[in-house]
Every structure is written in structure tokens, then in C-alpha cells.
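Revision sheet: C-alpha cells.
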Amino acid sequence: MVVGDLAEETEVLVVGGGPGGYVAAIRAAQLGKKVTLVDKAELGGVCLNRGCIPSKALISSAHQYELAKTQAYPGLKTSVELDYGKVQEWKQSVVDKMTGGVKTLMKANKIQVLAGEVYFSKRDEVRIMTENEAHSLRFEQCILATGSRPIELRALPFSDRVLSSTEALALDHVPERLVVVGGGYIGIELGQTFAKFGAKVTIVEGSDAILPTFDASMSRLVVRNLKANDVDIFTKAMAKSVTETEKDVTLTFTVGDEEKTVTADYVLVTVGRRPNTDEIGLEAIGVEVEKNGLVNVDQTGKTNIPSIYAIGDIVKGPALAHKASYEGKVAAEAIAGHPSIIDYRAIPAVVFCDPEIASVGLMEQEAKEKYGEITVGRFPYGANGRAVSLLADEGFVKVIADKKTGVVVGAQVIGSEASNLIAELALAVELCASLDDVALTIHAHPTLGEMVMEAAEVALGSPIHIVSK
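Predicted:
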């Protein structure tokens, strides 16, 4: 790259190398564009390096450790010892493999990758800054995919003992005691993981229940399993302050009018994420940014500046990696002149807790408000042969349809492999499939997937493997 003020040119500049940015870059390159991707950290973004992938590696390890420790399967006697250092080494090997794959994809698609921080000097030009030098780069179109960072509470500033998810995932040991502030999906996933590894975990959540965006019937099963791991849960609770020493940290919080304290090795704060849209010059070039840091975009991801698009955590909607990837494809295709627009009808959401939770489309109450009369079919894991043979008989599959048309408008799954089962239901919602379409699709036996068919049959009033009420 040319050093100094002489600008190098590219057709499409992608700012951010996470699951939104690198996917957008690949799609734009596939469509014949000259693409440059710039990221200030590592390819793969938070998801591959400090979020989705490393957390799922630890979650899987904790689950296997628990199974071995509790001798879950009758007739099998096990002895297991935890070497958390080795667990962390394996987790990092998974991260390295996935990020290495992204590097290979960049090279194969002839995408120029640059390291540095981006600042918009003009509507068609950025300065790319490293520790030692700065470069200028002129572009025809730009896709912003700068992602987000953990929210830091003023009362609980990050420190050696007050951690974000980034630091928690990198701990070289299992803490004896851990307090989690925030009972959303990140807090529950990590809190339950450390509890399975042997930590004494306390969860402090401000809402009426943990996982407040999911149906209460689903979160109740997670609460039961958390308590089985000796996790203390406080809801309707407000964190007030922390007091640190060299050895521990004490959180002060309130539940109603009562003030409480809990002392632990670490406090993990998981109360949400903040868009990375500050300090890159967007306001200076006139890009419309809301007070909360989100960028306003149209159905193609285009901002009010026709040459600049935005995707992922910096636009409205859930901060999910697969949403960002989807939006990245749409933005790249729109730039290339394709009639591609964003449709959020079927974005699945998954929590990798125990048991797993997954949802797509509308929740039951949302469906009632939109369609008036609805049909609901619910089938229990306990009536499925494969689930029983896996010792995974807790949970259910729920399918929701518009009663007038029979079209599937939403679905929820809680139980083993919910994260995989939701894919078929997402396809049903995306294609506006009817309950008959799902029920008449032959599913292999014995599989967990049969429960999707059976839930549709329940909704139609013709269940085979449970007694209809």
C-alpha cells in the first residue's frame, strides 16, 4: 500500500473483519468487485476470536466434563479430572483453525486485507492508521461492519476483577466464586459453563426472570438446571457498586428494598453491547447515527450517504453473527446491482445453555397480537425415542401458526440440539410453509427432528405419539 497522502483506490471498502464484514467482502468479490477489507484487530472479529466460537468450545467442554463426572449413562463408570489449562489450549486451537480458514478465504477471493484503524476524512476516502504510519484509501462503495463491544457500567467499571465476556473467556483457571451481572444469553451461557466446571456462581438480573426475551416456560427449565449446579439467582435485582481487594471483589446490589452483598473472585458484567460507531468520523461526513450509536439504513443496508452501507451490530435488530452475515450478503449484492433486500421474517435466536433454547419468528403472544386467532402445537422430548435414548428427555418443540391460513409464523425449541432443530423451523417460517407441509414431510426415525413433524400434527389435532387433550 502507498504510504503518505497518495490514495490507493478500491471499488468496495469493508471496514471490519467479523462475520458481517468478511462475508460481505467475499460476496462482493464473488460478484466481480475489487475489495479491500480493513480491521484494527484480527480477522473473524469478536465472534471467532472472543465470542461465539471460544464460548461454544468452553460450553462443550463443560458439558462433557459434567457428563463424565456424574456418570450420566447407566452401566458406565467413569473417572475424570479437569485440566483447565488444556481446555484453554484446545479452545484456542479451535479459534486458530476458524480464523485461519477466514484468512484462506480472503486470499482465495483475492481480497486485500489491511490492518489498522479507520477514520473517514471524506465521503469517499478514509485514513488507515497503524502505530507507525497512516495511509489514505479512496473507495467507490463502503460497507461498515465495525461490530460492538461490551457495555461498561459506570458503577461497575472493568478492572482486574470486574470482567467483560472477553476476559472471562481467557481466564487461565476456574474461579472458586463468580458473580454474573446480567441474566441474558451471554451471562447464562458463561455462568452455567463455569458452574459446571466447579465455580460457585451467583447471577444478578434486573428483569423478572433470566432470559427475559424468551417464554417463561422455557426459562424455567434453564433455572432448574442452574439450581442443580448450585447457582444462586436473584431477579428484580439492581447492581450498585463493587469493592475490590487484591484477592476478591464484593458486589453490592438491591432486591426490592433489601440491600445485599456477595463476595467472589470475579464479577462478570454481561448487560449488553455497544455499537462501535464512535471515533471513526461518521458524523463528520454526515452519516446519520442515533444517540445509541446505531446507524440508520434502508432495506439494502444503505445509509443516507448513497455510497456507504452499514450492517451487523451497528444497525437495528439483534446483535447476532448470522444476522450480520446475512446483511453483509444483501449489502454486497445491492452494491453489485442485484435486487436484494433485507427481510427479517426468519432470524433464529439460540442460547447455548443447558438445555439449549432456540426461537424463530413470532412468540405466542406476538402471534396472537398480529393474527388474532392462532394454532399452537407442542410436542415433548419425553415422548421421542431418540431423546429418551440420549437421556435428554426434558424440553419441547412448539410450532405456532395463523389459524386462518395454517401458515407457520413462529416456533420455539428447548432441549437437546435445539440449536440444530431450529433450522428446519426457520425454513418453514421463511417459506411460509403450512402446518400440513411440515406434518406431511417424512422425517427419519428415530431422530430428534421427528418432534418438528409431531408438533405440527399436534397443532392440526391429529397427534400420533401423545394423547390429544
